[in-house]
Amino acid sequence: MATHISHSPAETEALGEAWGRAAASGLVIGLTGDLGAGKTQLVKGLARGLGVTARVHSPTFTLVNEYPGGRLPLYHLDLYRLETRNQISAAGLEEFFYQPDGVAVIEWAERWFGEITNSKSNIPNHPNRYRQVGIETLNETGRRISYEDFGA
Fold first, then answer.
1. How many CB atoms lie within 10 A of CB 123?
2. Tens of pLDDT, residues 43-69
């Protein structure tokens, strides 16, 4: 597992931008962290790295925001308002969890995939390429961003 310490929202966005430049189609990124931890900041950078020019904002009330027009489409999902796998399935979001035709980023991913340890076998019905990301608030602007890749 890799760890990155971000000292500002701009540094969090820069990490996301680097990931966006390197992302391949089919990548699923699961984000965990408290409210205000910086999940959406990371997605803003990811979008920029993919070449998405639209304004990125949290999909808390819409559940999914789609951003076409970049090198790859970006699907930004937020499971905060959904508490169970049945609610997530009923909302029709599963299509974004496995082999998206671009990059899917899922905030509150633990609500679908559960808590991930260090083994691909621990991810129920895992995507082929999955990056598990945890964001921990250290102070007002500091964040510990831990991530691990699973799959091809």
1. 18
2. 999 999 999 999 998 887 889 999 998
Q: DSSP for 7-30, please give it.
A: SSHHHHHHHHHHHHHH--TTEEEE
Average model confidence (pLDDT) across the chain: 89
Say which range, 45-49, 75-79, 110-114, 130-134, has the weakest mean pLDDT.
Answer: 110-114
Give the separation between CA 121 and CA 78, rounded to whole angstroms.
Answer: 24
Closest CA to 58 of 82, 29, 38, 72: 38
Fold of the domain spanning 2-151: Rossmann fold (3.40.50)
How many CA atoms, within 13 angstroms, populate the side-chain half-sphere of residue 41? 20
Domain coordinates in residue numbering, the chain: 2-151
Residue 78's nearest CA partner among 100, 97, 105 is: 105
